[in-house]
């Protein structure tokens, strides 16, 4: 493979990069990061990414981190998924930032708290706080998607591939698709794209591996 | 003024955009958004920004939201604050994304919980959770800044202006500059830049206005 993506199945942030690489038709493959056994806290991983996070993309000597940066690289390299104009490209960035702060940025920690954190460490007040913030962000998405098929322009872009990062996971994290009908229909549109795969089918590692 | 920025002094996210506009030498002025009296929840504001957030920038007919998008516009318009190469520009984006998710994205809600939310609505578990996440992100910044003056390259960029968004506020939010000496020195470097202003001096609105 040409492009390596350091990732694991449970990471919706890694999924955003993996899905963009896959749907853009690039030759890439995953490198499994054993997050649940502390792989991102090792000196070796910190040397690769001081932020201590997946995804990390390697294309030859080029190393990129942050899913939005990797998505931007995919857009530059392929001309795909970035919108039809410079204005659309900027609008894609707007949604990628919103996602990082308000959608995936909340859904990730919330899903971790509710599913992957030791039960004795979970805190209902924290879970309630995060659920409230996520509901607010999903409400914005549902309102915006009421009159359009895609977040930016007339076709799928990295805006969609960013905001959907955590929304296909079935572990409970306070997201009921029935409560957000426009988000629900939009997720079905993304899932119907040729080559779409669920995060657990696109990247190695899933909860059942640790059962 | 040419450029209008809808903002208020307590918003570190708005400060990121205001500081970039100011340090790049653009002709701009603030439009006060009365956040604490619900201005961002009005239909009029939602029509301006469906995300219901400041900052919102207006330059003639162009309306941009998300501090990182406005910073990108400042870089495009002035050629300043974006780094010395396309690779540096991408690295700036990497830090802007990290800030939105892990630094300002946590410091903002944490500072709100500890200072602006009604006392009977504050939750110590939530505050503790957010403090832990912020400390982790500030630790990454402190480590990276150990061997460099600026986050990207040899001069200030929007990477610095994004990550510092909430870090000049003196209301308590679990951030003690003495615990992060490299962050402390970096904040002094930014504050020494010609034209730098504290958020309460750059934008209208501060807690004492509501006292």
TrEMBL record, chains A, B:
Pfam families: GST_C, GST_N
Keywords: Transferase
Coiled-coil ranges from the UniProt annotation: none
PROSITE patterns with a match to the protein in the record: GST_CTER (PS50405), GST_NTER (PS50404)
CDD domains: GST_N_4 (cd03056)
UniProt GO molecular function: transferase activity
The UniProt record lists the keyword Secreted: no
Location of the GST N-terminal domain: 1-82
Stretch forming the signal peptide: none
InterPro entries the UniProt entry points to: Glutathione-S-Trfase_C-like (IPR010987), Glutathione-S-Trfase_C_sf (IPR036282), Glutathione_S-Trfase (IPR040079), Glutathione_S-Trfase_N (IPR004045), GST_C (IPR004046), Thioredoxin-like_sf (IPR036249)
Start and end residues of each GST C-terminal domain: 85-211
Family: Belongs to the GST superfamily.
Name under which the protein is recorded: Glutathione S-transferase
